[in-house]
Specification:
The complex is a heterodimer of chains A (308) and B (660). In chain A, α9 (268-277) crosses α10 (280-303). Chain A is an alpha+beta fold and 308 residues long. Chain A has 3 domains: 4-103, Alpha-Beta Plaits (2-Layer Sandwich); 113-192, Alpha-Beta Plaits; 195-260, Alpha-Beta Plaits, CATH 3.30.70. Chain A has 10 helices and 15 strands. Chain A is globular. Chain B is of the alpha/beta class. Chain B contains 18 helices and 34 strands. A 5-stranded parallel sheet of chain B has the order 10-7-6-18-29. Chain B has a 5-stranded parallel sheet with strand order 20-27-21-22-23. In chain B, a hairpin with a 6-residue loop joins β24 and β25 (476-481). In chain B, α12 runs parallel beside α13. Classes of the chains: A alpha+beta (308), B alpha/beta (660). The interface between A and B is medium-sized, with 27 and 37 residues. The complex binds flavin-adenine dinucleotide. Flavin-adenine dinucleotide binds next to α7, α11, α12 and α15 of chain B.
């Protein structure tokens, strides 16, 4: 059987495949999860991913950009899979989600730093679950013998006091917006962002009544409307850039990523991705830190010096 | 000892050949008698085989006795026999160019076989023309060209390897230019070889290593021939080495870079059944053993650079490198490719998962192949319990490739025997064939061995064959018809197609660069199919292996050695002698207008300026004596020796003369 390269595009998913006699490479983009940000397109080392802006229909809300992947250029390296903040892309080899670039330490993984201490949870609180803009959190209550309780009100006070709260978060799909953290009344959750940066909307340059950025922003509350103008709440922005893609005026929306939290790695591919996602300045900064870390490491080894 | 015949009056001898059916259709007595009536003919006779050694002695005798100073032979095609008779008259002391041939066999006998009278009349005309020309022949001196004692072999398959090793052993410097990363060609991809079933790479591998280590061979792999100029003995070639992004001198072939590389891509050497790393070698026995980075897939993580470490063999900025070299001869051995049968829908290749091509099967059954030598189906990874081989897919098909691909019958027998010997009764093997072509040493015996091993041979027509797939089991139904039109069918869990072998894609481009002819079927054309199968029309350029016509390994090895011997015949000489039949410029008449330069297809005539005067200059080694420049020259300054204006006009006059 000759090598088959297949691309299928449905309303739900875009799938790319290399079918070889002994191996099957598959990339699936879940269109329900994709928000049309620019992260994968910027990071792809083969420039195989293109963003297609959707035409604006007057009177309707703006639609986020769609992504298209070129089967001729894609090499199934899975960098898009690793970097997608929303977990919309999966690359598998023979059906298994193996990330060879991570295994060979030629690309880092994003750090999704989400700490949960359920001991402080009030038994009937579901604030986080309700606040999550992407529906990634599920709060359950368990009895002492680990049975799920659907209706806490029907329990006696004693039983109630013995209940344990469990919070399940679909981490691989979480962009770490921190909304849950801010909505938690008891400080149960601590979330650190993956992408750090700067976003500015110059309202003066915005076209009259335009809310395109707000229309496509997947994080409720990161952008908000006041006096017919869109404002930013940097607290929640994940710097994915979905807004930037649809903004009709070049200078109206400024977005800059300054830092990406990732596992440590020494890789040209990562340096290039970082350069494109953030800026050459950030890349040099990171390289410098690595350099000084390395220098410190070698000094420590030689002199037994323990600096800070 | 050559006589200066220019001064003397012509004394012409005519010798009429009566061999073949010439004597029976044309009245040779009458023709000979007629010859004696022509002006300046002092002697004529007919004989049975003028070209035989006895015939030649008779001619020499006649030249001496009758003091002949011009000779005409009326007989066969000059393409084959002119050189023979030139040597003959030379031995009699004449200048070899005082000889002329009347081709009565092709122009009279063959075209007028059923009308003997017309044949006889035309024979007379031909002899008359030859005599008219002979009268004006002038002695010519052969041209000597210097010879560069180096050779370029293009293509590193088994044919190119054989040619390169022979030439290198004879002491000539060889540039072996190979397009891919490694030499070896198709043979390096095969599992076993018929009819002995020895391991293919085990017998080719040592030869590849010999090539790699030979002090006289310079392998230029991952390279292309860009330009070829010059002529026999003096070719100038330009070769581009494509960047591997590896510094060859520093690469030890250890493979640590490959182990560090995270990226895989379909391996063309495995027929893309399996994968290789973005930095890798196509197979372990590659020669030269230098790794290559495929930038189409590489993500530039530089893990290979780390792994390579102090060896520092990796250079991502490597650029293509152009190399110029002078060689005296060229051997072309670029082999063949496989036809992709996806367009023949009746076979379902590319559509049904368990239909394979022969070369894919070769990689499947190979222990070092992508499945570790397990013959397994694509649909379920299971070993098939029945395999059907279909012969002549695309070959012997006037709508695709009319020719027979030559080696498919034999490799199918090989595959059938290997399957039977590997899986015994656990596999049923069917071979749907039309004719079994097993016509070399040990081949028919191998066919017998296959029959004895329990393979089912089913003789079917070439037409009306069809394969369908059972949607549930993914088994295949093969339908065909026997010679008397009866339908036959078989169910098989795997089908293997013997798809046609075809000329390589880039053959046409290379033919243009080398200025050698290519046939309608895109195989290179030999100079003469029977007695000059290694030569091209361009002196100094030779053919070896499957690029001239499909052939199996033993034949390729012999053909490669043949080409080497012929190239050595040039390289071994200090001077190469060519016929003086090249354009001559009369500098007094030439105005330097450049029309000749513009019409020459061989770049042999160029306008050059010397002492303020523009003149046409002929490069003798390039000129093929076609005469176009001579015809185009408006002032008649270019003369074609042996085809001078006077000689041609005399011939035309002779044939148009009414009265005899
Ligand atoms: C499935 C299968 C099984 C076979 N089994 C057998 C067997 O058992 N026994 C047997 O005797 N024969 C067998 N054969 C036939 C055998 O493969 C050929 O006879 C032989 O390999 C031809 O050798 P070659 O050197 O002429 O050509 P190739 O092996 O094709 O080598 C040509 C070389 O030239 C290179 N090249 C191409 N173009 C260029 C260019 N422009 N510049 C530079 N280099 C170029 C190619 O990369 C290649 O390395 C089999 C064939 C097939 C398809």
């Amino acid at each position: 059987m000759p090598l088959k390269t297949v691309k299928t595009d449905t309303a739900e998913a875009l799938t790319l495949e290399w079918i070889l006699h002994v191996r099957n490479y598959k990339l699936t983009l879940d269109k329900n999860l994709c928000v049309g940000c620019q992260i994968c397109a910027l990071a792809c080392p083969k420039e195989a991913i293109k963003l297609e802006k959707q035409p604006k229909i007057p009177g309707e809300k703006a639609k986020h950009a769609k992504i298209d992947i070129d089967l001729e250029k894609c090499n199934f390296c899975a960098i898009c899979d690793i970097l997608c903040p929303y977990g919309a892309i999966k690359v598998t080899v023979n059906g298994e989600h193996l990330l060879s670039v991570v295994e060979k330490e030629s690309f880092p993984q994003l750090i999704r730093d989400i700490q949960v201490d359920t001991s402080k949870c009030p038994v009937d609180c579901v604030e986080c679950e309700e606040a999550c803009p992407l529906d990634l959190i599920k709060v359950t209550r368990l009895t002492a013998d680990k049975k799920i309780v659907e209706d806490a009100d029907s329990l006696s006070e004693k039983e109630k006091s013995e209940l344990q709260v469990k919070i399940d978060i679909q981490e691989e799909r979480c962009p770490c917006c921190r909304i849950c953290e801010f909505n938690c009344p008891e400080g149960v959750l601590t979330v650190r962002k993956i992408f750090h940066g700067k976003i500015n909307i110059h309202a003066g340059k915005c076209p009259e009544g335009c809310t395109d950025c707000l229309d496509v922003c997947p994080i409720t509350g990161a952008l908000y409307l006041s006096d017919d103008k869109v404002y930013v709440n940097e607290m929640f922005c994940v710097y994915c850039g979905a807004c930037k893609i649809v903004c009709p005026v070049e200078e109206a929306l400024e977005l800059k990523r300054t830092m990406i939290r990732h596992t440590s790695v020494r890789s040209g591919a990562w340096n290039k991705a970082l350069e494109r996602l953030a800026s050459p300045v950030e890349m040099t900064k990171e390289l410098k830190t690595k350099g000084s870390l390395k220098a410190r490491e070698s000094v420590r080894k030689r002199l037994g010096w323990k600096g800070t | 000892m050559q006589k200066e015949s220019k001064m003397e009056a012509p004394r012409i001898g005519v010798f009429v050949c009566e061999c073949g059916s010439q004597g029976s259709i044309i009245d040779v007595d009458d023709l000979t008698r007629y010859a004696t009536t022509l002006p300046n003919v002092v002697y004529a006779e007919h004989m049975n085989y003028p070209c035989s050694s006895q015939g030649q002695e008779e001619i020499i005798d006649a030249i001496k006795k009758r003091r002949l100073n011009r000779v005409v032979v009326a007989g066969c095609s000059p393409r084959l026999y002119e050189p023979v008779f030139r040597r003959c008259v030379f031995r009699a002391g004449l200048n070899p160019f005082l000889f002329e041939m009347a081709n009565i066999r092709e122009f009279s006998l063959y075209c007028h076989r059923n009308t003997p009278e017309e044949a006889a009349e035309k024979a007379k005309d031909l002899v008359k023309m030859a005599v008219a020309k002979a009268r004006l022949l002038e002695p010519l001196q052969p041209i000597e060209l210097p010879v560069t004692k180096k050779v370029m072999v293009v293509g590193g398959g088994i044919a190119g390897i054989s040619a390169a090793l022979d030439l290198a052993d004879m002491g000539f410097k060889v540039y072996l230019v190979e397009k891919t990363e490694t030499i070896g060609g198709h043979m390096a991809l095969l599992d076993k070889t018929f009819p002995t079933l020895d391991c293919s790479i085990c017998i080719e591998g040592p030869k590849m290593v010999d090539v790699g280590r030979h002090p006289n061979i310079d392998i230029m792999s991952y390279a292309d021939v860009l330009e070829v100029d010059g002529y026999v003995g003096n070719f100038e070639v330009k070769i581009r080495k494509n960047p591997r992004y590896i510094i060859a001198a520093n690469c030890t072939g250890c493979g640590e870079c490959r182990d560090a590389c995270p990226i895989e891509y379909p391996n063309p050497s495995d027929m893309k059944l399996g994968v290789r790393k973005a930095i890798s070698v196509p197979f372990d026995q590659a020669v030269p053993l230098i790794y290559t980075i495929n930038k189409d897939y590489c993500i530039e993580c530089y893990k290979c650079v780390d792994a390579c470490g102090a060896r520092q063999a990796i250079n991502f900025d490597q650029k293509p490198e152009e190399i110029e070299a002078n060689v005296g001869a060229i051997v072309v051995a670029i082999g063949y490719e496989m036809y992709n049968p996806e367009d023949m829908e009746c076979y379902g290749y590319g559509k049904y998962e368990n239909v394979f091509t022969a070369l894919e099967f070769e990689r499947l059954i190979l222990a070092a192949g992508p499945t570790g030598g397990k013959v397994i189906r694509a649909s379920d990874g299971q070993k098939p319990h029945s395999v059907a081989f279909i012969q002549c897919v695309g070959s012997r098909d006037i709508n695709r490739y009319e020719y027979c691909s030559g080696f498919c019958c034999m490799y199918t027998l090989k595959h059938a025997v290997m399957l039977k010997e590997k899986y015994k009764d656990d596999v049923e093997v069917y071979v749907f064939y039309n004719d079994m072509r097993s016509n070399f040493k040990g081949y028919e015996e191998f066919f017998n061995r296959a029959q004895k091993s329990g393979v089912n041979f089913i003789r079917v027509n070439l037409e009306n064959r069809r394969i369908t797939e059972e949607s549930e089991t993914k088994n295949l139904m093969v339908y065909a018809e026997t010679e008397d039109g009866k339908p036959v069918e078989a169910e098989a869990e795997m089908v293997v197609l013997a798809n046609a072998a075809v000329p390589v894609q880039n053959a046409t481009e290379l033919a243009k660069i080398l200025k050698i002819p290519i046939g309608a079927n895109r195989f290179f054309v030999e100079c003469q199919p029977k007695i000059r199968p290694n030569e091209t029309d361009t002196p100094g350029i030779f053919l070896a292996g499957a690029c001239q016509g499909l052939r199996d390994i033993p034949y390729c090895v012999a053909h490669g050695s043949g080409a080497a011997a012929q190239a050595a015949a040039i390289l071994g000489k200090s001077k190469w002698i060519v016929e003086p039949l090249v354009a001559r410029v009369n500098e007094d008449l030439c105005s330097g207008c450049g029309i000749c330069e513009s019409v020459c297809s061989y770049d042999a005539v160029r306008i050059e300026e010397t002492a303020g005067k523009k003149l046409a200059k002929v490069t003798e080694g390039l000129c093929r004596g076609c005469g176009i420049c001579g015809a185009a020259c408006p002032v008649g300054a270019i003369k074609m020796p042996q085809y001078t204006k006077e000689q041609v006009v005399a011939q035309v006059r002779a044939v148009l003369e009414e009265v005899r």
